[in-house]
Specification:
173 residues
């Protein structure tokens, strides 16, 4: 078995554990994300020496930076941010960016489905139209604030789906 297969298996195991914890407790603990980041950096360094170390740090920084924006907006939790930093340490910079597009798509689809089942499809459609109007017609950011009565999402699911998808679709390289 090659080291790349082992690396993918470890990443999928980490993501699987994160999904279970996020669904069950809506938390992704530091004891999972911290060692996962170190494991990603360590494996890349072992495989590619200094280039692998830098490759992994770049991926981690990009993963952290991309989801940190969503955390600041109040859309996701800190565990999701640290989980994607760990994913980035395994994937490197370009695949981390590619996965981000797929994660955003999967997360958006999950959000629409959860809202549709939770608040009704007509109300969800009205909210989406209002969001579109606010963002694109008035160019205001006020619609981005999360409502208090909205159910939470286990965003680790979207992170996993986007990460797996990035192995088959990567427009950046």
């Amino acid at each position: 078995m090659s080291i790349e297969i082992i690396q993918i298996a470890l990443l999928l195991t980490i993501l699987g554990m994160a999904i279970v914890m996020d669904i069950r407790w809506r938390r992704i603990p530091n004891w999972l994300t911290g060692p996962a980041i170190l494991l990603g950096i360590g494996m890349q360094t072992f495989m590619n020496h200094l280039d692998g170390f830098l490759f992994s740090l770049e991926g981690m920084a990009i993963g952290l930076g991309l989801l940190l924006i969503l955390y600041v907006l109040g859309w996701i939790g800190a565990g999701d941010v640290k989980l994607y930093a760990a994913v980035g340490s395994f994937l490197g910079p370009f695949q981390t960016i590619s996965a981000a597009f797929l994660i955003a798509f999967a997360g958006g689809l999950m959000a629409i489905l959860v809202l549709g089942f939770h608040q009704g499809w007509k109300r969800t459609g009205g909210w989406l139209w209002s969001l579109f109007q606010t963002l694109f017609l008035s160019r205001s950011m006020k619609a981005l604030a999360p409502a208090n009565n909205v159910p939470t999402l286990p965003y680790a699911v979207a992170i996993c789906v986007g990460t797996i998808g990035s192995y088959w679709w990567s427009p950046l390289g």
